[in-house]
Design brief:
Blueprint (H helix, E strand, L loop, with lengths): L26 E6 L4 E2 H11 L5 E6 L7 H13 L10 E2 L17 E4 L10 E4 L2 E2 L1 H9 L6 E4 L19 H20 L19 H24 L5 E7 L7 H4 L8 E2 L6 E11 L2 E10 L4 E10 L2 E2 L3 E4 L6 E8 L2 E7 L5 E9 L3 E10 L3 E9 L2 E8 L9 E7 L7 E2 L6 E2 L11 E3 L2 E8 L7 E10 L4 E9 L9 E8 L2 E7 L1
Parallel strand pairs: 1-3, 1-5
Antiparallel strand pairs: 2-4, 6-7, 6-8, 9-10, 9-30, 11-12, 12-13, 13-14, 13-15, 16-17, 17-18, 18-19, 20-21, 21-22, 22-23, 22-24, 25-26, 26-27, 27-28, 29-30
Helix pairs in contact: 1-4, 2-5
Length: 506
């Protein structure tokens, strides 16, 4: 359930994206304002330059510096909120811009404009339809969500993206999340042709004003520090696993789309740990419930299991532990064997385990993807292919708002990234929330809705189009918490026959 943050000072991992050379793109021009230079923009230049056969040049377009109050705010947040290491939202001096890339050197195949004044078909991020970072900063200061789009984008990039800002009271962290998403989308678009050569001019930027930033710095920093101290005194977030035996298949939450107030039994815990991410699995006439067991003292998750028999759940015992955090035990059968893909994003791999003996002896047999932090990996079969849905968060992006797809002819691969990755950027319907299921031949996927925070609700998405070149889904329903045992959030939905499980926060 939890995801390890990017460690301080760690090199940001570039996402798996299409090769621009294969699309005929040879020269990329990036327009930057050296007076408003963010670290993520240098990460973008490095990632583009690392691609074989791609020439990168920088066109400096000096504008005006940010208000001194904004720079002071970002500087003060580092010691107050213990922000160590490189941050995507570090404001840098103009001298940090590599001189070797400066100056236009030819006619570019694609231009990325990050100055806040795009035009002529240049690719440029827009926040609530406005060019310039002021619109994003303003949304964060006003504690509201922001819609992300791109001027000059190809048809492959959706027009209404909704990044998760998460920590809105810490400007640096909020900017880290959104800037990292913008970075990965710029990389994806670098390998695509724009919709047209002449369109895509952005709207005028909306200045935030030094007065607004100064007022925020003066009035909010004290509240932020107080919130941090208060947070140390309150009890930690707790999750519980609820289960019920359905009377018939139509009772399934995935069909009724409503969480009943009663009817669930709750898996007990001792208060020193919680259980979450429930996955039921039956074999050889027995049924087990696999869960994440998160120990507060160790601040790390492992995989545990309990047997379900005669309407009761037995004691929970650990079955798989690694040095890194494990959660979301996706368990499935294939060709007479039983496999598990636990979330292991903390180690930057998608690892496949096989049961030597059910349910408590597992061996790692393959690494399906390496060098990628993938959350809540969920597999399904469709049209002769294996499909992998995964929440991805390159650089310092949110773990809540981005979905990537991979496909393979065989379970062991090779796994190919979808050319439209990320296929979804929307905090309401991106991150997987349980096994996919079919209704009358239509594929459905539970998703996590983080509109009101991590795990605030469950969504149900109908998969309308799934091919190696296309992907479309429709958010058809949102299931919100309600019962006392799940009053603050919902996270995962799964079913094994008439046995249904869901986890809730309280």
């Amino acid at each position: 359930m939890l995801n390890a943050p990017l460690s301080a000072g760690a090199d940001p991992a570039s996402p798996v994206l299409p090769d621009p050379v294969a699309s005929g793109i040879r020269r990329i021009r990036v327009r930057l304002d050296p007076l408003r230079l963010w670290r993520w923009q240098l990460w973008l230049l490095d990632a583009l330059a690392a691609r074989p056969g791609l020439a990168v040049e920088v066109e400096p377009v000096p504008g005006r510096p940010y208000p001194a109050a904004l720079r002071l705010l970002l500087a003060l947040e580092r010691p107050i909120f213990r922000l160590t290491g490189a941050q995507a939202a570090d404001l840098l001096d103009p001298e940090a811009l590599p001189g070797a890339w400066l100056g236009p050197q030819g006619i570019p195949d694609r231009t990325i404009d990050l100055t806040g004044a795009p035009g002529g078909g240049a690719l440029s991020p827009l926040y609530d339809g406005e060019a310039g970072d002021e619109a994003l900063i303003g949304a964060i200061l006003e504690d509201r969500a922001v819609r992300l789009s791109f001027a000059g984008a190809s048809p492959a990039l959706g027009p209404d993206l909704r990044p998760a800002i998460e920590s809105r009271t810490v400007l640096t962290r909020a900017l880290n999340r959104v800037f990292s998403t913008v970075l990965s989308l710029c990389l994806a678009e670098a390998g695509r042709r724009p919709a047209s050569a002449g369109g895509g001019a952005g709207a005028p930027e909306r200045p935030i004003g030094a007065g607004a930033v100064a007022a925020f710095a003066a009035a909010t920093l004290a509240r932020k520090a107080g919130d941090r101290l208060t947070g140390l005194c309150v009890r930690a977030t707790r999750w519980r696993v609820g289960w019920r035996q359905l009377a018939h298949a139509d009772d399934f939450l995935g069909l009724t789309r409503r969480l009943p107030e009663t009817g669930y039994a709750v898996l007990p815990d001792d208060g020193r740990r919680y259980y979450a991410d429930p996955f039921p699995f039956s074999a050889q006439g027995r049924r087990w419930l696999f869960v994440e067991e998160y120990c507060y003292a160790r601040q790390k998750g492992l995989i545990a299991v309990a047997e379900v028999a005669e309407g009761r759940i037995g004691p929970v015992r650990p079955v798989l532990e690694e040095p890194h955090h494990l959660s979301y035990p996706f368990v499935f059968a294939h060709e007479g064997a039983v496999f598990m893909i636990p979330e292991s994003s903390a180690c930057g791999r998608v690892e496949l385990y096989r049961a030597r003996r059910l349910p408590d002896s597992w061996e790692r047999v393959a690494v399906l993807l390496d060098g990628i932090a993938a959350s809540d990996v969920t597999l399904t079969r469709a049209d002769g292919l294996w499909w992998m849905f995964a929440g991805t968060h390159p650089y310092q992006a949110s773990v809540r708002d981005t979905l990537s797809l991979f496909h393979a002819p065989d379970l062991l691969g090779p796994w190919t990234p979808h050319p439209l990755n990320p296929v979804v950027v929307d905090l309401r319907q991106a991150r997987p929330g349980g096994q996919c299921f079919r209704i009358d031949g239509t594929l459905w996927r539970p998703v996590q809705d983080a509109t009101d925070g991590y795990g605030s609700a469950l969504g149900l998405c109908r998969v309308d189009d799934l091919t190696p070149l296309t992907y479309r889904q429709t958010l058809a329903a949102t299931i919100r918490p309600g019962p006392a045992w799940a009053r603050d959030g919902l996270h995962t939905l799964n079913r094994d026959g008439l046995f249904e499980v869901v986890d809730g926060m309280f």
